[in-house]
Amino acid sequence: MQIAIEISMYPFRPDYEQPILDFISRLKGQEGLRVEVNDMSTQVFGEFDTVMPSVQAAIKQAFTKEQTTVMVMKVLHVPG
Average pLDDT per run of 10 along the chain, which is 80 residues long? Predict the structure, then answer.
């Protein structure tokens, strides 16, 4: 089953760019994911059983490193 996830990350700190770049880098380093980035969000595409654990691990690592971070996600089932 193919899915797409749109993620917006909001670290609550003045130098917010680096945690976002680190998060994107972790996702791009995962095999089996297609990661697209624009000014508002990061989109991750792939097989459900590949995407979900990869995104979960990247979020967990971000939450471990940052004091307060908000993640806004939308998950879409891509029929096909």
Answer: 97 93 96 96 97 97 91 94
Report whether 44 contacts 33 (CB < 8 A): yes
pTM: predicted TM-score of the whole model, two decimal places = 0.91
Which CATH number do you get for residue 26?
3.30.70.930
Strands (E) across the chain are located at: 2-11, 34-37, 42-47, 69-78
Domain that holds residue 74: 2-78
Return the biggest CA–CA distance within the chain.
Answer: 42
Considering only CA atoms, which of 2, 9, 20, 22 is closest in space to residue 71? 9
Query: What is the total count of domains within the chain?
Result: 1
Q: In whole angstroms, what is the distance from residue 49 CA to residue 41 CA?
A: 22
The whole-number pLDDT of residue 67 equals 81
